[in-house]
Write a structure and sequence with these properties.
By secondary structure, the chain is mainly alpha-helical. Helices cover 68% and strands 0% of the residues.
Length: 177
């Protein structure tokens, strides 16, 4: 039943105008503080709040879109290859959203709602390990919110990598001391 508490205000914030959006997001962040563990709606609340404060203006320049998508791709790849630089990449991604104006999750609430559903399906799917994962591990999937839906065709590639390569590496680390 946590979803019934954690999701309604988050989705509602997409469809409201100012100043109601800010008030609903404030209420959502207060609700998030009642849950000690890392839940998906807490992660998305963080992204929604950051996006709210960034206040981007959309640009339809194809070069800007390509550059932004390259930054998103690099950010996700760094999560797998060199995890110590992940904060740099996520910071770069946030500035890309701000400077390039390539994403505004509040401009098209239906598209963002669909992206949220896809993200939740990925994070809660049967292919994911049942173990508790920290929110820092879940960030590598949030790229779904920052890209065009067409790029979501790469989701199966990342899922397969997670299931086979990461699982194999973890099993090897457990076998070899």
């Amino acid at each position: 039943m946590r979803w019934a508490i954690g999701w309604p205000f988050l989705i509602l914030s997409l469809f409201l105008t100012e100043p109601f959006r800010e008030q609903v997001l404030a209420l959502q962040t207060i609700i998030c503080t009642f849950f000690g563990k890392g839940y998906t709606f807490q992660l998305l609340t963080l992204i929604f709040v950051i996006s709210f404060f960034i206040e981007t203006q959309m640009h339809d320049n194809i070069t800007v879109q390509i550059l932004h998508h390259c930054i998103v791709l690099c950010t996700v790849i760094v999560q797998y290859i060199d995890n110590k630089h992940r904060y740099f990449c996520w910071c770069l991604l946030l500035w890309s959203v701000r400077w390039l104006g390539s994403v505004n999750i509040y401009d098209q609430p239906i598209r963002t709602s669909i992206k949220c559903i896809v993200l939740v399906l990925v994070l809660k799917g049967r292919w994911r390990p049942a173990l508790e994962r920290p929110l820092s591990e879940e960030f590598k999937w949030c790229w779904v919110l920052f890209v065009h839906e067409f790029v979501c065709l790469l989701l199966p590639v990342q899922l397969l990598y997670e299931v086979y390569v990461c699982k194999t590496n973890k099993e090897m680390n457990q076998i070899l001391p």
